Amino acid sequence: MTAELTRPARPAPASTGLEDALRARVTGEVAFDDYSRHLFSRDASMYSIMPLGVVFPRTHDDVAAAVRIAGEFGVPVVPRGAGTSLAGQTVGPGLVLDMSRHLNRIVEIDPEARTAVVEVGVVQDQLNARAAEHGLMFGPDTSTSNRATIGGMLGNNSAGSGSLTFGMTIDHIRALDVVLSDGSTARLEPVDEAERLRRAAADTLEGRIYRELPELVTAHEKAIAEGMPLFWRRACGYRLDRLAGYGEANPFDLAKFVVGAEGTLVLATRAVVDLVPKPKRTVYAVGHFDTTHGAISATLDALSCAPHQVEMMDKTILDLSRKKIEYADLGNHLVGDPAALLFVSFSGDEIDELSAKVDAVAALWAEHGHGYHTLKLVTPAEQAALLKVRKSSLGLLMAAGEGTKRPLAFIEDTAVAPEHLAEYTERFAAILDAHGLEAGFYGHCSVGCLHIRPFVDLTDPEQVETMRVVAEKVKDLVAEYGGVNSSEHGDGLARSEFNREIFGDELYEAMQRVKRIFDPAGVMNPGKIVDAPPMTDNLRDRDALPPAPPLTTALSFEVIGGPGAGMRDVADRCMNIGLCRKTTAGVMCPSYQVTLQEEHSTRGRANALVKALSEPDPAAALGDERLHEILDLCLGCKACKSECPMSVDMASLKSEALHHHHHEQHGTPLRSRIFGGIRALNRLGSATAPLSNLPDRVRPLRALMERTVGITAARPMPRFVRDNLVRWNRRRDRPAPGSAGTVNWLADSFTTYTEPHIGRAAIELLERAGWTVELAGGGCCGRSSLSKGMLDDARRKASGLVTSLARDTAPGSPIVGCEPSCVFTLRDETLSLLGNTPDAEQVAGRVQQVEELLVAAIDDGRLVLPERSGLSGRRVVFHGHCHQKAEVGTAATLALLRRIPGLEVSEIDSGCCGMAGSFGFEAEHYETSMAVGRDRLFPAIEAEPADTLVAATGVSCRQQIFHGVGRTAWHPLELVRTALEG
Q: What pLDDT does residue 544 have?
């Protein structure tokens, strides 16, 4: 596989001809470069196969053209949505078609008919948001609903937690517009016998399908009746059972038949789907259990109360959630330390009726001795923490992997009837124990499906063999209980190998014949469902990457990734589950949210870095221009550090890559030097103000700056203030030493020289709260140099500041500030720059948020805010800084704002503002910066009445808000200072 990583920039002549033909006949983008191919060689499975190229179709006709051209060149086609398949369905040789970038329109919603017409790249949550306007939703509810595409759900026959009520995707498909394997197109829908015969008369591939498929179904009627697994929730094989018994009474429905076919028969481009009424209310009973077996054993009692769903999470998931800021809130609601939770939901319109059902479950469990506590969650606010962790269970479990020992999806999708689940799971666990494998347990007890992912190191040949042995034993165990080997995640490369044994020779050979009828040339995603390679072929960790060559880095990645971790280890933590492709909530990943390009997601960038860092000379590969094109739109928001369950810290990875690219190979650009030296620039600007502010008003000068340095003329520059924070502090009359002790104020480059009024407000509040405030010397934290990859300069600055804080301030005294990016650099990147030195560690341990000190002072009466002030009766919406959200969350800031009497406080889920320090000032990034702001932040603020206050902790955020919507954003400390004055 090393040859794949080091092949020349231009593809071989055959693929060059394919590329040229595609560019001539397809309107969407075509990518055959090595980086794009590598990005699409992986999905969320344990597999990796390098494709020849990638096409991003814009239209139905593009898909048809791509399939025709692939057929002309004898190249397979692999359809792909979000690329989150767990069994390897969306990796393969040949041509990948990314259906998500452009084919993502909701064409129509018909509330009366309860249907929607959607292109296959539409994300489930986007469809549900539109359908909710009419009180409707798409029934299948996957945990990946914020990035799963409808096309991917069609390919897998996805189900989710609500399948007990709503069934599977196959149950909600009315019609499909598809491209057949010869590039022709068809509408698949239920047809009566007369219409089937009419279509069968055509001398086309579609006609052949309508002729030969019914004959096959009739010929194998007995095998279909006896060979198909009896359990209803299945996502394996071809659904010949859905065609059995067709005739005058039952229409011939190819639309449903191809659901779950994993793109091996047709490529869908548009779907007509059924919608279901969206329940007005949902309540939860959350049972706490001392053992996983105890939780599973309580399932039947729960099912007897007619629930909407019954879900389980074991202690592995719960403990992992407690370790991450993004998910830790769940632990605050639990009672004791449960080994497992079983949560049962009831949905409907009447809250009293639903609450009574929760009480009934709790009573049954108590009567039968199941569990030790039942928590009742009625409101969405009460349920939020639980649901957030449940939807992220896969990612949290993946985060528990160490190096190449990862929790793998090869036996995680089995299902048996719920009445057998407890006994089945005990025997399943015994198989794992007998082979020395550990695993986490979670999933859908209501339908007998638990996702069990053993930790396996695929670089160890013995563990690969163990994986196969365990897969075979589990397959046999499933058959013994009349269950299914795959109940929602499909066959793919992980399970297709076993289909002959599962279905029997006659039925399997009938499925092979189905494949030949639809796809005579074997173009459509070959090697899935039938005629598959062994499950141990094409393993990502064993086959797709050579050992990581040595690389000297400026940052210590052991601090980020653990003992022994290098840069590639940190990048390769990404397991491609695609949470960074979400677009409607959270911060990660702001550039992806506006471009919808895989390479602009955290996953895309991490995989690109893995490729570069696997080259024979990784230091040279980090200077590759295509790599830096992929990294360029990373805003350094650090949301991936907290929102990505794997904590892939792309901001740090980008800084290291820039260090090698600019400063070791190509030289540091002038603009990077300017922004990296922002403290010296701001200090000079303050010293020469107001003259230093004149260039911002002279348009020719701004135009010259844009042409020569690349600083956009479209955005106002910060205003330098001559009476800066240092000058103010020197001349003022300082109060007597406070009773609370000494606190060290981190005088950052912005609230010192461009917004000193904020620093003054903070210092005055601290002093009123009894603190003695000392302005910390030592200079810049190095944050601005870090963002530009100037890591040697950043280390010098960080070392100077850390040394000053460690040796010139009172031991143990808090270090606080009001610019989150600077404050939290001391707790994060400084350790990576300097290593875990005693000085760096003790300084990091003393860093606090100023809000924490002020909340404590208000609560213990040292700082008293009047009951009435100019803020009483007002409303404020708060936008948190990205680094604050990533490092500690916004709870302390919100708590401080809520201490202001009479002030209504609301945090907006506004993502990233798009400014990202210098990013928004850079000419080539200005439009992207504004697009990020327009995505959610600007509309959220514009929706507020004119008298609503806006608060933001970041200087860049406040600049962006004013520039984008013309509203002044206040630092929360300014509002508290205003309230203090009454």
A: 87
